[in-house]
């Protein structure tokens, strides 16, 4: 870049914004001899399989709402049509909870079997999303902004909606970010997948979810280099010889401390 600027009489001792528009364009777009800043990032895009490249690229990437559609990501023509007084962009901006109420309020004219079938499918998918505790997400939420637990729960609902059978599902701690009160909903979803002749393997630490499994594979006896041995494999209901099993059966528990530290006067967090 410095050699290119020197060869083209572009000063490098002043701020970029003080350059002429021609000079700015030359640096960004480059020419036959110099690939330019844009060309440099195009080359980096081909290296995104490397973690440090993705981190580097993220420092120079921003997201802006389109001025024409205001972030709706639809053409103007598509936004002209409404259903239930909402266009498709407004429907996409609803939370799962709001979308459930919206689609329940829609009526299909008698005899329109195709629309009734589509509406029933939408209602079913939205119900699945509610069942796994994702009522707060908006329909237009991009997957890159979701946590790993949220992504897995979304994938679970897609799997249920597709009605696949004889499929192996492997989930890595799908309860991450899920409120404990919604564990039963997640368990019901996984059992539905099992009941339609699928196999569901879950890596999990939540005792409630482990306790509802049909079979348990417990690795131990400790963590890290002190683990990796099979401590128990078999029906969860008859687990024995396993520390995890002892906690599940209530034979062991984490004792409450006799007394707790008292926070100092200025150390309270008020919500």
From TrEMBL:
GO terms for cellular component: cytoplasm. Residues 141-210 form the ATPase AAA-type core domain. Keywords: ATP-binding, Cytoplasm, DNA damage, DNA excision, DNA repair, DNA-binding, Excision nuclease, Nucleotide-binding, Repeat. This is ATPase AAA-type core domain-containing protein. The keyword DNA-binding applies. Pfam families: AAA_21. One of its GO terms (biological process) is DNA repair. SUPFAM superfamilies: P-loop containing nucleoside triphosphate hydrolases. One of its GO terms (molecular function) is ATP binding. It is found in: Cytoplasm. InterPro entries: ATPase_AAA_core (IPR003959), P-loop_NTPase (IPR027417). Signal peptide: none annotated. The keyword ATP-binding applies.
């Amino acid at each position: 870049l410095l050699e290119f600027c020197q060869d083209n009489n572009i000063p490098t001792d002043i701020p970029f914004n003080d350059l002429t528009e021609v000079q700015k364009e030359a640096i960004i777009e480059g020419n036959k001899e110099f690939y330019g800043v844009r060309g440099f990032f195009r080359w980096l895009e081909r290296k995104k399989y490397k973690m440090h490249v993705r981190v580097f690229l993220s420092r120079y990437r921003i997201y802006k709402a389109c001025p024409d559609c205001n972030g709706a990501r639809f053409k103007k023509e598509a936004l002209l049509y409404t259903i239930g007084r909402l266009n498709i962009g407004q429907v996409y901006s609803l939370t799962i909870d709001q979308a459930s109420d919206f689609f329940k309020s829609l009526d299909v004219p008698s005899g329109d079997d195709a629309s009734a079938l589509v509406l029933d499918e939408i209602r079913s998918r939205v119900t699945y999303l509610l069942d796994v505790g994702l009522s707060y997400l908006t329909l237009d939420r991009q997957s890159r902004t979701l946590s790993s637990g949220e992504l897995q729960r979304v994938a679970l609902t897609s799997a249920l909606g597709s009605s696949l059978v004889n499929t192996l599902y492997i989930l890595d701690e799908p309860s991450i970010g899920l409120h404990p009160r919604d564990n039963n909903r997640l368990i019901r979803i996984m059992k539905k997948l099992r009941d339609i002749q699928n196999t569901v393997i879950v890596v999990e630490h939540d005792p409630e979810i482990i306790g509802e499994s049909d079979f348990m594979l417990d690795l131990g006896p400790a963590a890290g280099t002190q683990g990796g041995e099979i401590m128990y494999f078999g029906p969860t209901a008859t687990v024995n010889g396993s520390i995890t099993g002892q906690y599940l059966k209530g034979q062991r528990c984490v004792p409450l401390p006799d007394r707790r530290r008292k926070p100092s006067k200025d150390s309270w967090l008020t919500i």
